[in-house]
Structure formats: C-alpha cells, structure tokens
Amino acid sequence: MGLIRKLFGGGNNINIEEEIERKGFSTSDCSFDCDSCSSKFPASVSVEEKDELWNSTKEYGLHIVVASGKTDWPHDACSVPGTVGKAVSGWADSSNDKFPELGTSSSIKVTMSSLCSAELDTNEEYISGRRGDILILPFFIWIKNVSAENVGSLLDVMMPKLIESRDKKIPPPSKVENFDDVTVQADGFQSYIFLCSHRTRDKRCGVTAPLMKREMEIYLRDLGLYRDFNDYRPNGVRVAYINHVGGHKYVANVLMYSKTGKNIWLARCRPQNVRPIIDECILADGKVWADKVRIIQRFDPIEW
Question: Which of 97, 224, 252, 301 could form a disulfide with 261 if both were Cys (CB 3.0 to 4.6 A apart)?
Fold first, then answer.
C-alpha cells in the first residue's frame, strides 16, 4: 500500500477496507507512476485533507441526470421555473422513499449535466429547458423528449416499469402509454464519469473539473474508449460535468457508474490520479482506494 498512500493520501484504513470488501468491492494497490503526469491543480486550489471521506455523503437509490448542454448553472441549478430540471427535482423531493424497491436507499438524487441532445441546437423548447432528455441511473436508461409539464406523471408511470424490468430481467417499453412523444432508449456506454463543474457554487470546481476531464479524455482516447457528445458507439466511456453534489472542499469529486451496476464516488482526486482511477475503478470491476472513497454502491442492472 506504500505507493497508494503516497498518491492518494495516508491514514489507517483497516476498518474501512473491511467495509469496502463487505460491500462487494476490493481495495487496490497502484503501480502506475502518477508523478509523471504534467497536469496539476493550481496552488490556489485549497482542499480539505484531514476529514475522513468514508460515508461523508448519503447513499441513494436513483440518480436522474438532466441533459442541459451547459457546464455551469445558477446557484440552485434546478431552480429555474418552467424547466425540466426544476420539475424533475420537485418530483424527486415528493418521491423520496416512495420506491423502497430501489434497494438499501430509496433516496433520489437529481443533477443537471453537460450531456447534450441534438435538439439543443435547433429546438427552442430544448434550448429554454422546457423540454429535454433525462438519463436514469443506475439503469442506464434515457427518457427522451420530456416536457416540464408531464415530468411528474411520466416518472410515476415509468419508475414501476423500470423496477419491474430490472427484477424480471426484461427490457423496459420503448414507448409509454399516453405519452406518445416520449421515447425510452437504452444507453450504450459501459460507464459514465461525472465531475462537478459548478463554478457559481464554488470556483474550485470550475478550475479543477476541466483539468480532470482533459486528462481523462486523453487517456480514454489512448484506450479507444473515449466518446464525444456526437459519438454513440457502444461500450465507450463518457465524461461529463454535473452541478453541485456536496463536498466542494474535497475537490475533485468523481462519480462513476458502470452498466454492471457499480457506483463509485471518490473525492480529493487530482489529475495525476486519473489513470489509476480509469484502470482500477472503471476497467477492473470496481477496485477502489480507501482514502478516496466517499460511498460505494452496487445496483442490479436492467438487461436489454
């Protein structure tokens, strides 16, 4: 563990490592020389180094990601009246604990994201946020062409269908009764990596997220896994920005989802950590470092 202590921080993690193993993950020793990375955070970026990260955020059962095509948002990102983001957030607030079938937690997380839709170029409703596409994680399901007015009733219908699809190992419906304009599509990527870029909330995120994203995309290109917003080849990895998720003092926060059902949330990550993160957390079926983990979860995936 010597090199991991050097690259990812120190401390006595014996109990945390046991907890990680009980959750079905494993800890990793890293042999990559991360000091060779030339990209580093500016000295002005302050990071809280003393707090223990383990369980420093709460588990959740569902994450709804709204595609906005933006890299920064108002202080309260889901506060804009008449938008899909606000409607989804309102539905989530009223639906927390409504679906215990989600697993150990039925809490619902909602974030805006830099993920795009082709409609954002020409469709005025998409541009204004009154209509949009949402990604349902950990199910890797897109619900497209959603209007702010029908978000609540649509999700009330879709959630039981998605849970049934997961439990019965059957594909969810591609169309939803009484919502003729809405389509449901499987996401073809193997993993998503999300970085907080919410400069309006904390300027450190606006500085660190682009540096992390650049390093991740460089390495993913080397591996043949990089996917840009117009590239939907299957089995790639998409890196995107999201709004405030809590813990800005622990920048950079890195949230990862795999289609196999694993969810890893790391913090205090730096550009020199990028290659081990992709090698171990993304490609090695969820190996993690005890000093970097905020939470880890495993979900049952939907099969198409």
Answer: 301
- Give Rg (Cα) of the chain: 19
Tell me how far apart the alpha carbons of residues 101 and 2 are, in angstroms, rounded to a whole number. 41
Is 228 within the bounds of a domain?
yes
CA distance 282 to 276: 9
Q: How far apart are CA 260 and CA 263, in angstroms?
A: 9
HEC assignment per residue over 111-167: EEECCCCHHHHCCHHHHHCCEEEEEEECCCEEEEEEEHHHHHHHHHHHHHHHHHHHH
**Which pLDDT value is given to residue 34?**
56
Judge if 161 and 127 occupy the same domain. yes
Other CB atoms closer than 10 Å to residue 97's CB: what's the count?
Answer: 11
- 153, part of any domain: yes
pLDDT tens-digit map of 247-270: 989 999 999 999 999 999 999 999
Strand partners, 193: 239, 256
Does residue 203 contact residue 184 with C-beta atoms inside 8 Å?
no
pTM here? 0.92
* DSSP string for residues in 162-215: HHHHHHHT-PPPSEETTEEEEEEEE---SEEEEEE--TTT-HHHHHHHHHHHHH
Task: Provide the number of structural domains found in the chain.
Answer: 2
Report if residue 151 sits inside a domain: yes
Tens-place pLDDT, residues 205-230 = 999 999 999 999 999 999 999 998 78
Q: Domain of 234?
A: 22-54+189-298
Query: What are 97-130's pLDDT values in tens digits?
Result: 999 999 989 999 999 999 998 888 889 999 999 9
Q: What is the dihedral of CA 42, 43, 48, 54, to 10 degrees?
A: 50
